[in-house]
Amino acid sequence: MTVSAAAAAQPPRLYEAIYILRPDVSREAAQKVSSRVQEVVQKGNGQLTLVEHWGRRLMAYDIEHNKRGVYVYVNYLGDGALVAELERNFRMLDEVMRFQTVKVAGDLDVAALKDQTATVDAYEPPTGDEEEELTLEQELGLVQGPRTLSARVMDDDDGMMDDDEDDE
Questions:
Q1: What is the 3-state secondary structure (H, E, C) of 3-64?
Q2: Cβ(30)–Cβ(123) below 8 Å
Q3: Domains of the chain by range and CATH?
Q4: What pLDDT sits at residue 151?
Q5: 3-state secondary structure of 153
Q6: 33 φ, ψ (degrees, to nearest 5)
Q7: pTM, to two decimals
Q8: Listed residue (46, 66, 68, 45) closest to 56, CA to CA
């Protein structure tokens, strides 16, 4: 049995990838990346099952001096060669700052997933008057608003900022 015959005998696996675009990416550039992803998956005999644009979000740490990035989540059926080709394309695209691909573990109903086809929607860049993102505590209603410097108390003894007045 040859290598290609062995690869053809195995069913395709489900992979998920998240890639982060620069925060100032234009609609045309984001669409170019999305169409490149779709093209690579089709050429690699794979199939997109889900594409979600998560929008512009605050990142855990700065990447290339950017605090935010445009997140896109992709699920697709394919093999290891398709993953390698897709990641090679991510590295070549200047708009992509980071990416990560993970094989979804577990036994999946691949036949049911093959019936699903994902459509790539256009990315809508944010307008200039967007609101600041809320923290988890603010979304849950545990905190009224963002913490400000006036909410903290200055300690006269050591000149350090303290969160609690009763720290002694």
A1: HHHHHHHCCCEEEEEEEEECCCCCHHHHHHHHHHHHHHHHHCCCEEEEEEEEEEEEEEEEEC
A2: yes
A3: 3-115 (3.30.70.60), 134-168 (no CATH)
A4: 43
A5: strand
A6: -65, -45
A7: 0.64
A8: 68
